[in-house]
Amino acid sequence: MIPFNKPFLTGKEKVYLNEVLEAGKFSGNGPFAQKCSAFFRDHFGFTDNYLTTSCTDALEMSALLCNIQPGDEVILPSYTFVSTANAFLLRGANLVFADSNPTHPNISAAHLSTLITPKTKAVVIVHYAGMACDMEAIQNILAGKNIFLIEDAAQGVDSYYNSQPLGSLGDFGAFSFHETKNIQCGEGGLLAVNNKKFSERAAVIWEKGTDRAAFLQGKVSEYGWKDIGSSFYPSELNAAFLFAQLEAYKNITTKRISDWSYYDTLLKNIKDSGTFSFPVIESYMHHNAHHYFFSCSNKKQRDALIMFLQEKEIRATFHYLPLHQSEYFSQQQQQITLPNAERFGDTLIRLPLFNSITKTEIEKTVSAIHDFIRE
Ligand SMILES: *Cc1c(COP(=O)(O)O)cnc(C)c1O
Fold first, then answer.
1. CA atoms of 304 and 283, how far apart (whole Å)
2. Tens of pLDDT, residues 66-92
3. pLDDT of residue 351
4. Distance from Cα 177 to the centre of ligand 1, integer Å
């Protein structure tokens, strides 16, 4: 069986976990957590970053920092994971869903620009499959407006917009280290705080609303309750695991790009034939090969292809159900139509791609897709 994903282990996880077990200190913000944080500072330039238990948590931290109040409007793509929405809904925001581009699931800047009102407090963008959104267009739309920009870069570790790391372009960038992501520790995340105005408050919110960080740095003689906050950071066990992965990040990305490109080469005939639609990869998308995906002509064909591959022991999968069509959202808001997001919801398929996938497995998958087309 070729699974859709198989979490990668570098081999160092056990070594570092053992170090933590021997040291006997397990709570958060310990030596490995600080090493992870320093790694993101040194390798990606995130001078202010906070390790969290998930990307969901990182997004929730960003919503607290933006001081989202009931009635504030937050614009986000409909074609995304629920956490992108929940983080802001929890603060009472009115969610305003934007459509995807016709040729890529990323948010349509053109549609986004029509949704901005005086009540817009924040825009959340998602770099789908680690492929950068059209930052020039988005930054032009937001220029001179008092609107926060949050990047849901959950899939975007070691991905770039031209040469700028994803997660460094907005006021905040949120990452995920869930086991389905390129770099993983089971469950984990990180918030990059790029807008320096928020540095101090971020540290307090991260520390359950206390100024413990300042206390640990010797800046205050005791620490206390300063603001709202929550328990956002992971245990030292997760951090130790994550550090093993971070040390290997270049190799992880290189292997994935090589497998992604192999799919792309083998699928070239199908691409040229126009049987399926392949995403347009813009020159500014220097991506980390998080997913290999394309779109079928309709839902029936997509579901049939998934079933066909499944019968051959190959696990391909669909992705998001657009949030505006979800049971939860459609019950409480008036119906809207977002044709591109709906089409990706119906037709997008993702092929198996994980660190230990072999060339033979990729060849087998592509040859099964050829069989499907022939039948
Ligand atoms: C995975 C993912 C999340 C959630 O990440 P967690 O770490 O599981 O909370 C949020 N947004 C997007 C786009 C994702 O792919």
1. 33
2. 999 999 999 999 999 999 999 999 999
3. 98
4. 8
C-beta neighbour count of 75 within 10 angstroms: 25
Residues 128 and 262 sit within 8 Å (Cβ to Cβ):
no
- Chain centre distance of CA 364: 29
Smallest CA-to-CA distance from 125 within 157, 103, 148, 145 is with 148
Mutate to test the pocket of ligand 1, among 124, 125, 176 (most ligand atoms within 8 A of CB): 176
Label residue 213 by pLDDT band (50, 70, 90): confident
Tell me the HSE value of 109 on the side-chain side, using a 13 A CA sphere: 12
**For 85-113, what is each residue's pLDDT tens digit?**
999 999 999 999 999 999 999 999 999 99
How much is the pLDDT for 194?
Answer: 98
pLDDT value at residue 334:
80
Task: State the residue for tokens 């958060």.
Answer: 28
What is the distance between the alpha carbons of residues 212 and 203, in angstroms, rounded to a whole number?
9
Q: How confident is the model at residue 332 (pLDDT cuts 50, 70, 90)?
A: confident
Pairing of strands 348-351, 292-295: antiparallel
Half-sphere exposure (Cβ direction) of 346: Cα atoms closer than 13 Å: 13
- Sequence-distant (6+) residues with CB within 8 A of 87 are 56, 59, 60, 62, 63
Identify which of 56, 59, 179, 287 to mutate to test ligand 1's pocket (most ligand atoms within 8 A of the CB): 56
154 lines ligand 1 (CB under 6 A): yes
